[in-house]
Write a structure and sequence with these properties.
Strand content of chain B: 15-25%
Radius of gyration of chain B: 25 Å
Largest sheet of chain B: 20 strands, parallel
Structural class of chain A: mainly alpha
Helix content of chain A: 40-55%
Strand content of chain A: under 5%
Distance between the termini of chain A: 55 Å
Helix content of chain B: 10-25%
Number of strands of chain B: 34
Oligomer: heterodimer
Largest interface: A-B, 65 and 97 residues
Number of helices of chain B: 11
Shape of chain B: globular
């Protein structure tokens, strides 16, 4: 299983690494403020996402308890796995994606209560994505406040 | 499993946020909805809804009709009958059958916990005994999977009473190297999912029992076809197990247990909990054989199995789902139970002509039933593919209880939910418009929810030592809500004793974009000229009894399962909800209306709502709950409500789900109590203040800008 996990994640991690090096994940932020500090780029090539891997992805089963124990690199790899499952590239429809920073904010805050260990990250991601455009608009307008 | 809860919000409450919006958010004690959930799967297609006439009788094209148990004895009709049993020559099963039949005849049994106990007649008992004797003589297998593998089109499998753990399936490797990674499908981005061929070749990788309805033909189309109407010819194999019927031969569903769980205190007890008394959190640790509670991810999966009938058995103890069907045309589940499945009890995905009835389930961290990505057979269907507008899925006469939700489903188009009882959940029913990619059918529309009872959904599952772990945040104390549905009907339901709210509706501003194709409606009921705000329009709530206990209601022990709080008692005539109706008043949403509903005293006057019911019946007045569908539109109060949605829903601002601004994760105070009234007053003050603040105004401006020009009334 370990071999499979490596095989499954190698392609993903490579892709993620490239995407991150190209500019902080593959999601498209709506404002410069969200584009991330270039200094903060993390190379996650070769890093496995956390959580139970089933059939090539952890997205179905990864939970808050996994998230809380993960390193920064593992968290980023996990975000990319979840995002790739919820925002497939070829579904013929585009839904908002969370940037790495946004996803981290959601997972960090949602997973904080002690009772939240079993919350599934992809469900949290889907919830948050439903309101992300509104959230960004509010952030942008607040940033413009004197 | 006591009710303890630790909040870790102290650091967040002090000084971390200084923006005005955040300050206001912390004051908001809102009754806010959660969005249901989603589900991850291979790129899926809605099956061709016409019958497959390559076999006789044809498969699909309609909801299959169950064949009688007696016909399995006589062997009349198409297909072979195979019997699965326990014990040498079925002796153990026969003993169990006789015992159960005797009990059902003498003492009776409850098909669903909220129904009265019913006895079977002497004649029926005799028939059942006789049939089981004959089945025992014909039994040659102890493994359901072995018998499934031998079965072909039109065949039948009779399962005699007993607990079936399928040892051979349990030994099958998860992530089986025969299939993983070679049979994973990859999209352009590199996301991996198991293909249909994966499920066929390695059927027990994830599933205790796997039923492949069709042969593997070719490779999946890559990238997947954007129009999801019809499984591509390239990969649609011939029927090999269509019209299969699997049926328990006991007196009641619990007599046949299909079990993916382990380490029970007493596995023979149908309601036994996987893992025994260990903490629910421990059930989420360890993979495969190391998991102390679950041996498999799914109890029974039927894939492209057109014309499938499952009847009279219990599916228990899956790490994910009890029953799971995908890309199937024609499924009937009758008298089935879903206990202790960690995610969904039942899950149907991209499935047509789909009926689940007389079911019962509890112990799910998401929902007991989940009909997701159901076909687009509603108002804006592709008429070449679906000539008639119709409901494609029906959930009826089920008890859906003791879970985070009784029902959830993303993109649940044209589903009918009728005559069910939702009780003792955190939230009774939620069906959302989320996860559009991968969930064809955006935006969800055309549901009808009628003649159900939604009561006492007050179960707090967000505690440190719950009976099962909640997988998704939900507002405790909610009967029903639609986040993002269009053109729905909520009619003639009885909704009572839900301490936060009876029924609620919100818009999802999810900014979906895409072509008018299978994955998206060519049009939506919302009157926006862009696709930005395209959810939550044309929903009608009528003829509902709110806060009133229906005639014939009887108390039952499962109502208080897991410590669910309720005000209901033997003689109660009324049981108010926290508030009967809650609407976010999304500024540009049109056509939503609430009419001919009554409150606890049986009249309109006693209804409670946010916004408040209008002073005059039948009208849609600004600032009040609309009653005239053709003139209904949202209003400025949205600006006061949406920050609460943001804060509680995804912790965007508060950084803490359990922060003071969010009250979802506790059972609310009892309606009418001092605590409840104070919370309501506080909430309204905060909403009002927010609506008039700069933040509220900015939100409203954004919504208007985002959604473009809006025409007044449904359909613009």
């Amino acid at each position: 299983m370990a071999e499979l996990r490596r095989a499954g994640s190698a392609a993903l991690a490579g892709l993620v690494g490239l995407a991150l090096l190209a500019g902080c994940g593959s999601a498209e932020p709506s404002a410069e403020a969200r584009s991330g500090d270039p200094e903060a780029v993390v190379d996650i090539s070769g890093t496995d996402p956390v959580g139970e891997m089933t059939a090539g992805s952890v997205a179905s089963l990864v939970e808050c308890r996994d998230w809380k124990e993960a390193s920064t690199e593992e968290q980023l790899a996990t975000i990319e796995d979840v995002r790739s499952q919820l925002n497939p590239a070829d579904a013929g429809i585009d839904a908002p994606e969370l940037t790495d920073e946004e996803a981290r904010e959601v997972f960090d805050s949602s997973c904080k209560p002690s009772w939240a260990s079993g919350l599934r990250l992809y469900k949290l991601y889907a919830h948050a994505a439903g309101f992300i455009e509104l959230k960004r608009a509010l952030d942008d307008s607040q940033a413009l406040q004197p | 499993m006591g009710k303890t809860k630790r909040s870790e919000s102290t650091d967040v409450r002090t000084g971390r946020h200084t923006l005005p919006l955040t300050f206001l958010l912390l004051l908001v004690a809102l009754a806010i909805p959660a969005l249901a959930s989603a589900h991850l799967e291979r790129p899926s297609y809605w099956p061709d809804p016409t019958a497959d006439t390559s076999i006789t009788p044809a498969a699909g094209g309609k909801v299959p009709k169950a064949r009688t148990l007696r016909s399995a004895v006589t062997g009349k009709g198409a297909g072979k009958v195979r019997v699965v049993c326990k014990g040498n020559k079925g002796r153990t099963s026969l003993k169990l059958a006789k015992r159960s039949i005797r009990k059902a005849h003498r003492k009776g049994f409850r098909l669903r916990p909220s129904l009265p106990s019913k006895k079977i007649s002497g004649k029926k008992a005799k028939q059942l005994r006789r049939m089981n004797k004959k089945f025992a003589r014909r039994c040659h297998s102890h493994s359901i999977q072995d018998v499934v593998d031998k079965s072909g089109n039109n065949d039948r499998i009779v399962i005699m009473p007993g607990r079936y753990t399928e040892p051979k399936s349990r030994k099958s490797a998860v992530n089986d190297p025969r299939c993983n990674p070679s049979l994973l499908q990859e999209d352009q981005r590199g996301a991996l999912t198991p293909s249909y061929e994966y499920q066929v070749k390695c059927g027990n990788d994830q599933n205790l029992i796997h039923i492949a309805g069709r042969a593997v033909k070719g490779d999946p189309v890559t990238p997947p076809v954007a129009d999801r109407h019809g499984i591509p010819e390239q990969e649609l194999g011939r029927c090999i197990r269509c019209n299969l019927q699997i049926e328990g031969s006991g007196a009641r569903p619990e007599d046949v247990i299909l079990d993916a769980g382990k380490n029970y205190d007493n596995a023979k007890k149908p309601g036994a909990r996987p893992g025994g008394d260990i903490d629910a959190s421990a059930c989420h640790s360890g993979e495969g054989v190391d998991n102390p509670c679950f041996a498999k991810h799914v109890v029974m999966r039927t894939d492209r199995s057109d014309g499938f009938v499952g009847r009279n058995f219990l599916m228990r103890g899956a790490k994910e789902h009890g029953f799971y069907t995908e890309e199937t045309d024609g499924v009937l589940l009758d008298k089935v139970k879903f206990f202790w499945n960690a995610d969904y009890g039942h899950l149907s995905f991209t499935t047509d002509h789909n009926v689940v009835k007389n079911c019962d389930g509890f112990g799910s961290g998401d929902a007991v039933v989940y009909p997701g990505a159901s076909p687009q057979t509603g108002e804006f269907r592709d008429e070449g593919f679906y000539p008639k507008e119709r409901y494609n899925t029906t959930i009826k006469k089920c008890d859906l209880h003791g879970s985070a939700m009784g029902y959830s489903g993303s993109m649940g188009n044209s589903v009918r939910v009728t005559k069910n009882r939702f009780y003792g959940n955190a939230n009774g029913l939620t069906t959302d418009t989320l996860s559009a990619p991968g969930h064809p059918g955006f935006p969800a529309d055309g549901m009808k929810i009628d003649k159900n009872w939604f009561y006492a959904n007050n179960l707090d599952v967000y505690i440190d030592d719950p009976p099962f772990e909640a997988l998704v945040p939900q507002p405790v104390g909610t009967g029903f809500f639609w986040p993002g549905h269009n053109n729905g009907r909520f009619e003639d339901n009885w909704v009572f004793d839900n301490w936060r709210q009876g029924a609620m509706l919100i818009s999802i501003p999810d900014a979906i974009a895409g072509e008018a194709e299978g994955a998206i409606d060519p049009d939506t009921q919302c009157a926006s000229d862009e696709s930005g705000v395209s959810t939550s329009c044309d929903n009608q709530y009528s003829g509902n009894h709110m806060g009133e206990v229906p005639p014939g209601f009887k108390m039952h022990s499962s109502l208080k399962k897991f410590g669910n709080p309720t005000t209901l008692s033997k003689r109660a005539k009324t049981a108010p909800n926290g508030v009967d109706f809650w609407w976010d008043e999304a500024t540009t949403n049109t056509g939503n209306c609430w009419f001919d509903n009554t409150g606890p005293d049986g009249t309109r006057d006693s209804l409670t709502a946010d916004p408040a019911p209008a002073p005059v019946a039948g009208q849609s007045l600004p600032g009040f709950l609309p009653e005239n569908c053709s003139t209904s539109i949202g209003g400025p109060a949205y600006g006061g409500k949406v920050p609460g949605l943001l804060a509680c829903f995804a912790a965007w601002e508060t950084k803490e789900l359990d922060a003071p601004g969010c009250t979802w994760y506790d059972t609310p105070p009892k309606p009418g109590s001092g605590g409840a009234l104070a919370a309501q007053r506080q909430q309204r003050r905060a909403e009002k203040s927010l609506a008039h603040s700069d933040t509220g105004k900015r939100i409203e401006e954004w919504v208007r800008e985002f959604s473009g020009e809006v025409s007044y009334g449904p359909h613009g």
